[in-house]
Protein: AcrR family transcriptional regulator
Amino acid sequence: MSEQRRARLRLEISREAARLFWEQGVAATSGDQIAAAVGLSTRTIWRHFRSKESCAEPVIMQGVVTLVSLMRSWPRHKSLDDHLATELTRISHEPPPVDNLLAMKMIRLADTEPALRTVWLMAYDQVEREMCVIIGDRLDRPAGDLEGRMYAAAAAAVVRVLDAHIGAAVLTGAELTPFTDMTAVARRIAHAIRTATGGVVGGPIA
Amino acid sequence: MSEQRRARLRLEISREAARLFWEQGVAATSGDQIAAAVGLSTRTIWRHFRSKESCAEPVIMQGVVTLVSLMRSWPRHKSLDDHLATELTRISHEPPPVDNLLAMKMIRLADTEPALRTVWLMAYDQVEREMCVIIGDRLDRPAGDLEGRMYAAAAAAVVRVLDAHIGAAVLTGAELTPFTDMTAVARRIAHAIRTATGGVVGGPIA
DNA sequence: GATATCTTGTCACTAAGTGACCCGATCATG
DNA sequence: CATGATCGGGTCACTTAGTGACAAGATATC
Structure:
């Protein structure tokens, strides 16, 4: 099965699962229900996900893939601040994917549902690994380097906190405006990463 | 049930569970086996733990409680570096608890067992919350402050990476000596936290 | 010593997740 | 076009993690 198709199918399942989790709670949602909602047999669900909670993972991941891919395309001669600002504003004209709202809802649910919280943490564990190669690459350090791993962990952690914060704010609907200004968001993310890495990750490389 | 007794019981269960996980793998260890090993009924196990994997949590936690409690007792007028160095050397004369080795083994297992990795991440999620109040308190910031949460997240993340690194090194037995020098360990931890918080957390407060 | 509370054991039960086998589609090869 | 190999998915039986309900023993309080 092509990686593409598999990923799309997982995302499709994830959307339905996340919707059900949000509407009726995690405990009240069975694997059978998820399967019925997406039109597959229950057995097939377990072929693609380890547990019913982990069905939420692709949707959660979807909330940060753009940021991660932006990090990956970060050119060496630019500062992270500039890069994120230009790219985020460029992208922001496109319609924001519906999944993002779902992802925020899952993060919200993760506050009270331990099983979902583990999924959320595992997703950011994945982000941390990606950060590891991105940062290691940028700093010209060997792959398993301890310093690089700490930078990546700290960076992923602050992004996670920021993500949760923004998600909570958007969901409550209180302060929606400050997060529609993409350059401001870019600056906050870039600043957080730079701070969390002691200033090592964020600037341009001569 | 007193908090003390409950914690001790959980730890006792956790020790047996961790031992079994290490000896025969997580999948091959059943709740019944854990119960039998500790001399309780299976039902009682589920009264104290949500899942069999989470039985490993207290042992994992035990690996960082000393550091967390040291952070909590960190006086404002001292630098983290000094405080950790003096306290760690003072403590290092006491026999190192046997649980630490078990904790390292669990972290090792977490590399290949996703279910255990979630437990490990959840344990550090707890550490992050503790860090949150410690750091928020030290910086005289309100409880839910975003900056404080990011500092706490970054600090917990680097400690986690350091812990995994040290654990792996000790388990392979390759370089045991560099981690018996407690002042060196203290310096590394303190330096990592200071870096991850952009230099904000680590120094003495006038 | 009587009683209320609290923890555990027993047992029946639900549901998450797996293994084994089959079926239809797709695709390569003759 | 025929054929067979591979692959994704369905069906069904089965294991086991985890829960609810109730009984029983321990413990504390008066």
About this structure: The CA atoms of residues 113 and 167 of chain B lie 16 Å apart.
